[in-house]
């Protein structure tokens, strides 16, 4: 007899790995798109058009289908083992996933703004925004693996501290780039 749960879990993992890869790449392109202003004037329109094309492709062809696959197979796992919904960690994980979906759709609004030339956020802000899925990823994986709520709180405190360290490094990196 086939163990459907294992297949659902495998495709869930494939989905979220692909989803995160797409989100990381997409927001990195936001950084480069924001830096187009630093390119020679005669090249800026072509660069903007190319980044916009790439962003839409990653969003529509990679990130969004991967998000759907992640949710579909995650929900199939829950349908196969509904008792898991009684555990605290899965409820927190689902909240984090809803927040990640909001982040995903927020990225779409950025593509639209950059496409229209209405974006003024700046590359540094996108560098910071690019770290947000890292925090989601670490928190979600820790929850799924550790599952004990108190241990999760300790680990998540470490994740937040890690996020602060990333922010400090990003600020230092920005200072160093601007001083050159």
TrEMBL record:
<feature type="transmembrane region" description="Helical">
    <location>
        <begin position="90"/>
        <end position="107"/>
    </location>
</feature>
<keyword id="KW-1133">Transmembrane helix</keyword>
<keyword id="KW-0472">Membrane</keyword>
<keyword id="KW-0479">Metal-binding</keyword>
<keyword id="KW-0349">Heme</keyword>
<dbReference type="GO" id="GO:0046872">
    <property type="term" value="F:metal ion binding"/>
</dbReference>
<protein>
    <recommendedName>
        <fullName>Protoporphyrinogen IX oxidase</fullName>
        <ecNumber>1.3.99.-</ecNumber>
    </recommendedName>
</protein>
<feature type="transmembrane region" description="Helical">
    <location>
        <begin position="128"/>
        <end position="146"/>
    </location>
</feature>
<dbReference type="Pfam" id="PF03653">
    <property type="entry name" value="UPF0093"/>
</dbReference>
<comment type="similarity">
    <text>Belongs to the HemJ family.</text>
</comment>
<keyword id="KW-1003">Cell membrane</keyword>
<comment type="pathway">
    <text>Porphyrin-containing compound metabolism; protoporphyrin-IX biosynthesis; protoporphyrin-IX from protoporphyrinogen-IX: step 1/1.</text>
</comment>
<feature type="transmembrane region" description="Helical">
    <location>
        <begin position="12"/>
        <end position="31"/>
    </location>
</feature>
<keyword id="KW-0408">Iron</keyword>
<comment type="subunit">
    <text>Homodimer.</text>
</comment>
<dbReference type="GO" id="GO:0070818">
    <property type="term" value="F:protoporphyrinogen oxidase activity"/>
</dbReference>
<feature type="binding site" description="axial binding residue">
    <location>
        <position position="12"/>
    </location>
    <ligand>
        <name>heme</name>
    </ligand>
</feature>
<feature type="transmembrane region" description="Helical">
    <location>
        <begin position="152"/>
        <end position="170"/>
    </location>
</feature>
<dbReference type="InterPro" id="IPR005265">
    <property type="entry name" value="HemJ-like"/>
</dbReference>
<feature type="binding site" description="axial binding residue">
    <location>
        <position position="93"/>
    </location>
    <ligand>
        <name>heme</name>
    </ligand>
</feature>
<comment type="function">
    <text>Catalyzes the oxidation of protoporphyrinogen IX to protoporphyrin IX.</text>
</comment>
<feature type="transmembrane region" description="Helical">
    <location>
        <begin position="58"/>
        <end position="78"/>
    </location>
</feature>
<keyword id="KW-0560">Oxidoreductase</keyword>
<dbReference type="GO" id="GO:0005886">
    <property type="term" value="C:plasma membrane"/>
</dbReference>
<dbReference type="GO" id="GO:0006782">
    <property type="term" value="P:protoporphyrinogen IX biosynthetic process"/>
</dbReference>
<keyword id="KW-0812">Transmembrane</keyword>
């Amino acid at each position: 007899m086939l163990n459907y749960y294992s297949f659902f879990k495998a495709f869930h993992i494939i989905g979220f790995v692909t989803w995160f890869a797409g989100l990381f790449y997409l927001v990195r392109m936001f950084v480069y798109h924001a830096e187009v202003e630093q390119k020679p004037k005669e090249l800026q329109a072509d660069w903007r058009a190319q980044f916009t094309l790439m962003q839409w492709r990653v969003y529509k062809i990679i990130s969004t289908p991967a998000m759907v696959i992640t949710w579909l197979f995650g929900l199939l796992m829950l349908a196969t083992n509904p008792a898991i919904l009684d555990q605290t960690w899965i409820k927190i994980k689902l909240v984090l996933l809803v927040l990640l979906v909001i982040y995903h759709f927020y990225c779409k609004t950025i593509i639209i703004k950059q496409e229209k030339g209405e974006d003024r956020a700046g590359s540094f802000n996108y560098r910071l925004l690019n770290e947000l899925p890292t925090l989601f990823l670490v928190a979600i994986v820790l929850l799924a693996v550790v599952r004990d709520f108190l241990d999760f709180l300790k680990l998540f405190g470490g994740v937040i501290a890690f996020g602060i360290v990333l922010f400090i490094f990003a600020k230092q990196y920005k200072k160093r780039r601007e001083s050159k």
